Amino acid sequence: MHNKFNKLSLAVAIASTALIASQVSASGFQVREQSAKTLANALSNAAAGAEDASFMAYNPAAIGNIDGNQVAGGVAYIDANFELQDESASSVFGVPYTSDTSSQGGESAVVPSFAAKTQLNEQFDLGLAIYAPYGLSTKYDKDWIGRYHAVETELTTIDFQPTLNYRATERLNLAVGLRAQYADATLSNAVDTATIGALRVAAGGGNPASTAAGAGQADGFAEVTGDDWGYGYTLGALFQATDQTRLGISYRSEIDLTLEGEVDYSSDNPLVAAGLPDDQSGTADLTTPANLNLGIYHQLTDRLALMANAEWTEWSSFDELVVEFEDGTDSSTTENWDDTWAFSVGANYALTPQWLLRAGLGVDESPVPSAEFRTPRVPDADRQWATLGATWMPSPELGITAGYMHVFADDGDIDQQATFENENATKGNLSGTYEVSADVFALSVDYRF
C-alpha cells in the first residue's frame, strides 16, 4: 500500500505537467515567428502575402507567387515575461505554502527557420520549409510558491515540410505539403512528500494531522523527458483576383504525438530521496492543433499595400492530458481548451525602391476558458500586439528584413483548487493574477537566383 500510494500520488503530481506552455507571443503554445516579414506586418500577410519562400510555412501556395529559385532564412528572439501577482498557495489540508523567491517564470527563446524553393517548369514548384510551429520555454525558481504545479517546461517542435505547388492558371496556385514533426520535451515540478504521506495515512484510515503539518517542508523533485515523431499535411491556395488584389487560404492539419521518455525522481534531502520511487518510463499523448488562415492583400497605390488575415486554431482538440507510467498507474488532467480566432491588419509603404516600411496590429484570443483551467505552465490570456519593421533590398535578388513585435496581454486570474479527489490533491491550491507581456525581434534574409 505504501509504495503503490507513493507512486500513484507522484504520478498525479506530475500528470498535469502538460507538454505545453505559453510562449506569450501567440495563444496556447503556438509559435508564428517563421518570417520577419510576417512578424513586421503583425501576421496580416500570412495567408496572402506570398513575398518569399518562407511564407510556405503559413500558406504552401506562396511559392507559386515567386518565379525561379529562392532561399530564405531567419531567426526570431522571443523575450517572454509573466509573473504571478497577489499569489497564495496551500496544501489540500489548508497548510500555507510560502516562498521568498520571485514568481516570475518568463524565459527567452531563439527560433530559427529556413525555406527554399525551385521552379521545376511552367506549372510546378517544389519547396522545403524547416520551422518551429509550436514551442515554449518557461522556468521558475525551484522553491517558488507554485513549485508543485510547475518549475521548468521546455518544448521544442521542428517541422520538415516538403511542398509541391501547381500553377493551375495564371492567377491560381494550389499547393500541398507533407509535415514531419519532431517534438522533444522536458518538464519538472517539486513534489510535496509530506502531503503525499498525509494522504497515504488518511487513505489507510489513520489521522493525517501530524504529517500534513509538515507540508512544504520535505520536497522531492520530478522531471519528465520525452520525444516523438508525428506526421500531417498542409494545403493552400493563392488567387490573384485582380492585378491589385490577392486572396489566400491555407489549412494545417493536427498532428498526434505520443511522447515516450523517462520520469526521474530526486531530492537534496537523503531521507526524502530514500522514500521516492525508482525512476521509470512514461508516455503522454499530445496533439498539436489544426489551424486555418484566410487573408487578403491589396496594392492600393504604387507605394502603399494593405493586408488583413484571420486565423482559426482548433485548440479544442486539447481537452485532456493522459499520462501513463511503466508501473501501470496513470492519471489525467482536464484542460478543456476552446477554439480561437486571431485577427490582424497591416500595411507596407515603399519609401524608396530599396526600402519598404512595414507595420501592423493584431488581436488573439486565449484558448483557456477560465481561471480554473489556467496553470503556471500556461498562464495564457487574450492579447494584442503592435509591430514595426523594414525590408532593405540592395539588389532585386536580395532582401534583408528586420521586425519588432510588442505583445500586450490581459491580466489572467488563476484559481487552481485542490480537493482530495482531483488532480491537485498533491499539488495544492494556487491563486493569483498573472501579468504577461513579450517582445519579439526577428531578422531574415532572402535571395533569389
TrEMBL record:
Primary localization: membrane
Coiled-coil positions: none
A Pfam family assignment: Toluene_X
Signal peptide residue numbers: 1-26
Domain of life: Bacteria
One of the record's GO molecular function terms: long-chain fatty acid transporting porin activity
Compartments where located: Cell outer membrane
SUPFAM superfamilies: Porins
Membrane topology recorded in Swiss-Prot or TrEMBL: Multi-pass membrane protein
Name of the protein: Long-chain fatty acid transport protein
Organism, scientific name: Halomonas ventosae
